[in-house]
């Protein structure tokens, strides 16, 4: 019988010493639970993705020293650890088996993803050979993440004599990705006849969130082990007589819980790993800033979050009242700073230059930029990071102000459609024991930037259901405008949204990094030319 421990833990990119210590802790726990082998995630030693750290020779030397340190300090259990490797002038995404103080085998990833958020061909060479190692009498084949997403690598392990497949992964989450992973691994199980164990990283790294969700499939493609999403965990799986068994079997999260937990983890790790003292959020009385505030408090604790309400002459009393109620419920620190004096100062400065010109969005944008200036000043003074509050729907069409509401260091809901913002707000309220933390007024009132009298978002944008459907089809699915119209969406709205999406790229390129929760976000996996004259066919 082989007892394996699956360690989904939160590695930090570049923190080699800290990651080694965390692996040693996991090894000690695994050994205390009778495990013979500890399986870690992809590039667990370095964190994932190291990006251009992988272009630095010194980084590989440091990783090699860390691997040697790990091998010397672990006894009584074998470890399969992911790490970058330099060998004879070539660099690899590798996994090494450590046993009795020695590195006894190394596997080099064969399939290097070069799509979506992945660009491993920029850094690594492809491995060519399977790796099968005998652990406590069981012949274990090793694969790394993308190896299982197509035929070849797992099958080679089987041909080399493997009877159990161990897969190290750094698979970032997007909504409903669990089912994709299970199906992909089930395909490999069916093709090879081998049961398989899938160990995934957990934690936030810039725009990516890794959700853990490690699992095991028996030879019949049944899930026999699943660890929780968005938290560190160590699971135990037994392999005997060709069968896997485990007592660790967590339920899948519903979509809203999955999205919300991804946002919380992303904020917690971006703030914490980057060394900021906390977060600052500009409250407006609207639903986007309300949801962002909830996420920040849940991620960091109320004591590390500061909210600022900056009313203008156009701010409704309802917005002030609702914001104050949220603060009462959440318990974070709070200030109100009226921006009317600053608006008057700007007006007096610019009136001579604006003489004879009608008022337009310029005056509206000045208000947003005054608020952005205040928030950044507080950030500079306190060491807390400004969290921006723009959603995916509005970022897509440029319904945001450069150096205004876009000012900040991290965009929490940058990849959350407006329709999902409403669902997540309802979800967060469902977690409350008493009164809802987001007042009902905020959820049901028509959204407004409140930059001029009686302003409504829908005066400038299509209905959010329509807007989100168009953006999703065009941006995530690369469907043509003709296809989108043929699917039943209004032609006028499609023409308008596609045009706005195209011309807003210069804004998005200047937006802060933000959490990705969809299959394609406005980040690493969106590379649209700012200057271009291509016009879509209709």
Shape summary = elongated
What's the total helix number? 16
Strand arrangement across the biggest beta sheet: 5-4-3-2-1-14-15
Structural class: alpha/beta
Which architecture of the largest domain does the CATH hierarchy give at level 2?
A: 4-Layer Sandwich
Terminal Cα span:
63 Å
Residues in helix, %: 25-40%
Cα-atom radius of gyration: 26 Å
* CATH topology grouping of the largest domain: Nitrilase/N-carbamoyl-D-aminoacid amidohydrolase
Describe the structure using short key phrases.
538 residues; 38% helix; single chain; Rossmann fold; Nitrilase/N-carbamoyl-D-aminoacid amidohydrolase; 7-stranded mixed sheet; alpha/beta; 20 strands
Overview of the structural elements:
It is a single chain. The chain is α/β, with parallel strands linked by helices. It has 16 helices and 20 strands. It has 2 domains: 2-251, 4-Layer Sandwich (Nitrilase/N-carbamoyl-D-aminoacid amidohydrolase), CATH 3.60.110.10; 257-457, Rossmann fold. Helices cover 38% and strands 20% of the residues. Helix 1 packs parallel to helix 2, helix 5 (255-274) packs across helix 6 (287-300) and helix 13 (464-476) crosses helix 15 (491-503). The radius of gyration is 26 Å and the shape is elongated.
């Amino acid at each position: 019988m082989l007892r394996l421990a699956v360690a989904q833990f939160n590695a930090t990119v570049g923190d080699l010493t800290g990651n080694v210590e965390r692996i040693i802790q996991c090894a000690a726990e695994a050994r205390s639970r009778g495990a013979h082998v500890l399986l870690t995630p992809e590039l667990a030693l370095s964190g994932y993705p190291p990006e251009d750290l992988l272009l630095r020779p010194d980084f590989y030397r440091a990783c090699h020293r860390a691997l040697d340190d790990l091998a010397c300090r672990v006894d009584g259990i074998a470890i399969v650890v992911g790490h970058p490797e330099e060998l004879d002038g070539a660099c690899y995404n590798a996994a090494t088996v450590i046993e009795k103080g020695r590195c006894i085998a190394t596997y080099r990833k064969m399939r290097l993803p070069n799509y979506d958020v992945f660009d491993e061909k920029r850094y690594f060479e492809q491995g060519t050979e399977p790796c099968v190692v005998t652990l406590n009498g069981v012949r274990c084949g090793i694969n790394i993440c993308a190896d299982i997403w197509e035929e070849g690598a797992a099958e080679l392990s089987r041909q080399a004599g493997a009877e159990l497949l161990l897969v190290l992964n750094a698979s970032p989450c997007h909504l409903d990705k669990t089912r994709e992973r299970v199906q992909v691994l089930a395909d490999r199980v069916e093709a090879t006849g081998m049961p398989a164990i899938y160990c995934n990283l957990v934690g936030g790294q810039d725009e990516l969130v890794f959700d853990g969700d490690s699992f095991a499939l028996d030879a019949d493609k049944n899930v026999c082990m699943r660890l929780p999403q968005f938290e560190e965990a160590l699971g135990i799986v037994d392999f005997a007589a060709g069968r896997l068994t485990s007592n660790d079997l967590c339920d899948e999260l519903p979509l809203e819980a999955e999205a919300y937990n991804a946002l919380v983890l992303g904020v917690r790790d971006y703030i914490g790993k980057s060394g900021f003292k906390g977060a600052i959020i500009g409250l407006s009385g609207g639903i986007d800033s309300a949801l962002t505030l909830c996420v920040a408090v849940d991620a960091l604790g109320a004591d590390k979050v500061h909210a600022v309400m900056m009313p203008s002459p156009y701010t409704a009393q309802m917005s002030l009242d609702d914001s104050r109620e949220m603060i009462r419920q959440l318990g974070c620190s709070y200030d109100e700073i009226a921006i009317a004096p600053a608006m008057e100062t700007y007006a007096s400065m610019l009136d001579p230059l604006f003489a004879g010109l009608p008022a337009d969005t310029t005056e509206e944008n000045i208000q947003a930029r005054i608020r952005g200036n205040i928030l950044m000043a507080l950030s500079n003074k306190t060491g807390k990071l400004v969290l921006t509050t723009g959603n995916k729907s509005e970022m897509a069409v440029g319904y945001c102000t450069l150096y205004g509401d876009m000012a900040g260091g991290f965009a929490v809901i940058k990849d959350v459609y407006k329709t999902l913002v409403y669902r997540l707000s309802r979800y967060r309220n469902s977690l409350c024991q008493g009164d809802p933390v987001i007042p009902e007024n905020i959820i049901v009132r028509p959204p407004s930037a409140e930059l001029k009298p009686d302003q409504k978002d829908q005066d400038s944008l299509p209905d959010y259901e329509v807007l989100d459907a168009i953006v999703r089809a065009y941006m995530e699915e690369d469907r043509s405008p003709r296809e989108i119209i043929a699917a039943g969406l209004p032609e006028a709205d499609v023409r308008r949204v596609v045009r706005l999406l195209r011309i807003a790229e210069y804004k998005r390129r200047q937006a802060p990094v933000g959490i990705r929760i969809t299959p394609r976000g406005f980040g690493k996996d969106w590379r649209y030319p700012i200057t271009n004259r291509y016009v879509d066919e209709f």
